[in-house]
Amino acid sequence: MGNLYLRMLTLVIVFAGGYFLLCFISYLIKSANYKGSAYQQNTGFPFFKVLFDKGAYGEYLISRYLRKISPPGQFLFNVYLPKEKGETTEIDALLIHPSGIYVFESKNYSGWIFGTESQRNWTQTFPGGGRKNHFFNPILQNELHLKWLKTALADYPALPFYSYILFSNRCTLKSITLTSDRARVMNRFPVYSSVAAQSAQAGVLLNETTMKEVYDTTLYPYSQATEALKKHIEAIQTLYPRFSKGRALFRELGAPQQTFAGSSREP
Questions:
Q1: Taking 90 as the threshold, does the pLDDT of residue 160 lie above it?
Q2: Phi, psi (5° rounding) for residue 108?
Q3: Which of 22-26, 213-217, 222-226 has the weakest average pLDDT?
Q4: Alpha-carbon torsion (202, 206, 212, 214), positive or negative
Q5: Does the N-terminal or the C-terminal CB of the chain have fewer CB atoms within 10 Å?
Q6: Is 136 helix (H, G, I), strand (E, B) or coil?
Q7: Tally of CA atoms within 13 A in the half-sphere of 25 that contains its CB
Q8: Which H or E run includes 105?
Q9: CA distance 56 to 36
Q10: Does residue 71 have a cis peptide bond before it, meaning omega lies within 30 degrees of 0?
Q11: 3-state class of 170 per DSSP?
Q12: What pLDDT is stored for residue 86 in this prediction?
């Protein structure tokens, strides 16, 4: 009997060791892929931080999926654009491309997602029942980003803009009703094919000089927010409930008021 227990213990140790070895190899491969990436160059974040931050990891994967887009463009992340009264709005990721400016709102959620283009709140549920979470309509959220982005780029009135709402591959877009082409809503995996098709259809609309001016002179400084600014924004978000923030965003869009129901996630 003692030998049987010893053999079982040995098997457990071997399997556990093999599992952790595979995890370590996977980490090394992902870390090597991350090194020198557009996300690392723009944010300066170490891979260990990104790996354990769902929001940051989702933003990084956008650039990873689009890294081979042709012709190439330039990425920016966590772009803090100025609004009125000294406030800011943050764009998760954007791509400055010869075919236009692609603005990405990243939602690294799991579960099932329900929503329509016009309603204020979308819903996240989980298979088998359980809790429901409500979050601000990401299409409307990205339109606010576009509003202030266009203000920042007022010297370039002919720039085309494309709105993309990207959800994690871990979630299912169970019922998303769109009635216009104002935004594209999808899981993260097909973003490459969608952007490639969009850019091929649009053609070359920005020359190298314009792209460089938009990136270097106008938008890049907004992606280099100080830690003091980030902490200030986090403090404001802590003081004000998420629903209140959602209502404020809705008012900023000039849309009619609707009734909130259920719990919320960060818009």
A1: yes
A2: -90, 60
A3: 22-26
A4: negative
A5: N
A6: strand
A7: 6
A8: strand 100-107
A9: 16
A10: yes
A11: coil
A12: 80
